[in-house]
Write a structure and sequence with these properties.
146 residues; alpha+beta; Tetrahydropterin Synthase, Chain A; 2 domains; 4-stranded antiparallel beta sheet; 47% helix
Length: 146
């Protein structure tokens, strides 16, 4: 009996009138969500946080650090503060970090510029965190091994 009703109405295999509209609506919503996601994760403007401006350079006294195989390193550093600093940068955190990073290294490694540059980047990263963004750079003012 179901077959005869479908044959009489001519709707066998045909879609319901609202079904096609729902499919188009769902497709439009999915495309809109995908476009929004692409914009959000890839194209939206980054937050406009201004880059810090360089301020005062604070030179610290050179220190001696023990290296491997009874060698030592005399290292002097200067800290590039940002203009956001309202007080003079105190150097004890920087000297402590330098001791931690350079102690026990091999003299031959420190003679290679790429290795020194890697350690300098590591020191800058540690100091950026230790000084909460008040220090933006590090300069070696003295670097002698023996």
């Amino acid at each position: 009996m179901v077959e005869s009703v479908a044959e009489e109405t001519g709707t066998e295999g045909a879609e319901q009138p609202g079904s096609r509209r729902r499919k188009v609506l769902v497709l439009v919503v999915v495309v809109a969500l995908a476009a929004g996601a692409v914009w959000w994760f890839m194209l939206r403007p980054a937050s406009a946080e201004p880059a810090p401006e360089p301020g005062e350079v604070v030179a610290l006294d050179a220190i001696q650090v023990n290296l491997a195989d009874n060698h030592y390193l005399r290292i002097g550093i200067a800290l590039q503060a940002t203009t956001d600093v309202e007080h003079e940068v105190e150097g004890s955190k920087a000297l402590d970090a330098a001791i931690e990073i350079f102690t026990g290294r091999h003299q031959e490694d420190l003679a290679r510029k790429p290795y020194r540059d890697k350690l300098k980047k590591e020191l800058e990263h540690v100091l950026h965190e230790a000084y909460h963004g008040e220090v933006m750079g590090v300069y070696f003012t003295d670097f002698v091994t023996q």
